[in-house]
Amino acid sequence: MKLGDLHAYTGGKAFDAAKPSVLFIHGAQNDHSVWILQSRWCAHHGYNTLAIDLPGHGQSAGPLCTSVESMADAVATALTSAGLDRVHVVGHSMGSLIGLELAGRLKRARSLTLVGTALPMKVSDALLVATREAPAKAMDMINAWSFSSAWGGFSHKPQAPGPGFATPWGALQLMHRIHVRNGAEVLPTDFAACNAYSASEAVLKAIDCPTLVVAGSADQMTPPKVGKAVAGAISGAKLIVLDGAGHQIMSEAPDALLKALAAHLQAAA
To answer: What is the pTM of this model?
Structure first.
């Protein structure tokens, strides 16, 4: 469906204004498809699923937003256009930063779930340069760092725990697909936005909804210690660390993440 100017995957269910809505926000150089299991579960268990493509990503038209704050503003505008005030917000990586803005500055969250988050979310200078000058190399590096060593990288046969999951191979193909479909500027723009963002203390203090932080014990990009720091900065936030999971928690620990999310949504309701 269209959520304002944004494409939103609904899990195959029609939108029902009487139901609570769960907004899923993907990370850098990704789209709504990374949430396939969690979003479909919500759609079939009493929630409206709104797994969006951010501006200039997937099936959403541009222009790209160049900052986390402007991404959050675009999402808030889309929610308003659909008559939605507060929704349950679930964000991964860059999407978690957008979630912070939606919950704190914009007051649009009934609950907040931050998956693979960090503050600040700094990106190395070498990777920032590579996103512009050698995007294929940059995507290889990002993908290698996004999965735990238990997945074996590309020295092993492609792996999938079940239908609909993004393996390291599938995750890399998604990034390349966005590069071809949406343009070469998506990768450097997203990573520059993550690198530049630093939530103010006022934003964090303003978050007044139930908050869950989910970290992977083997996450090389946003290690659990930084997830713990984010949880500690938000009043009443709960931290869950999933054993063995890397940064792509939705793929590596899909059932454990879904269990934690379902319990959080139920408690928030």
So the answer is: 0.95
